[in-house]
């Protein structure tokens, strides 16, 4: 039985606005990000979502709290949905991470992980979803690594192609069917 997945990234952060690659650091939503998270809730609260799965990093948790707090929809935190761990480069300029990201498809960032490891980690959550959520509609709030895992698992896109591609953020997110 398939699972409908609604995917959205965590909302806009102070680091996003300042051009910083937060990685495994917690991050904080900006004022604009809190407004975007509220709009996410307006779009999704009555969208048939049975549960929300979110990265346990603060910026994703804050997005879920604003969007779904008080709705009765369970919000489940899972570390596997975290962004790629840039290791020693967490909190560095995003332009530097983007510039040489293809060098780290299989080679871990110093003190961190590779993009393929991050995709494999997030894919672990996707593999576990059918045990409880088959036939349901769930939402995932994550990061770029989460998006790459969804595209890799559901559409079969090669990790190297996903890392090389330019990511285009969508305010209304993406929808997937996991069979």
Please specify the SSE layout and strand pairing.
Blueprint: E1 3-9, H1 14-18, E2 20-21, H2 31-44, E3 51-54, H3 58-68, E4 75-77, E5 92-93, H4 94-100, H5 115-128, H6 130-133, E6 137-142, H7 144-155, H8 159-164, E7 174-178
Parallel strand pairs: 1-6, 3-4, 3-6
Antiparallel strand pairs: 1-7, 2-5
Helix pairs in contact: 2-3, 5-7
Family: Belongs to the phosphoglycerate mutase family. BPG-dependent PGAM subfamily.
EC number: 5.4.2.11
InterPro entries: His_Pase_superF_clade-1, His_PPase_superfam, Phosphogly_mut1
Question: What this model shows, in words?
Answer:
- This protein is an alpha/beta fold.
- The protein has one domain: Rossmann fold (3-Layer(aba) Sandwich), CATH 3.40.50.
- It is about 40% helix and about 15% strand.
- It has eight helices and seven strands.
- The strands form two sheets. A five-stranded mixed beta sheet has the order 4-3-6-1-7, with helices on both faces. Strands 2-5 form a two-stranded antiparallel ribbon.
- Helix 2 crosses helix 3 and helix 5 packs across helix 7 (about 145-155).
- The termini are close together.
- Its EC number is 5.4.2.11.
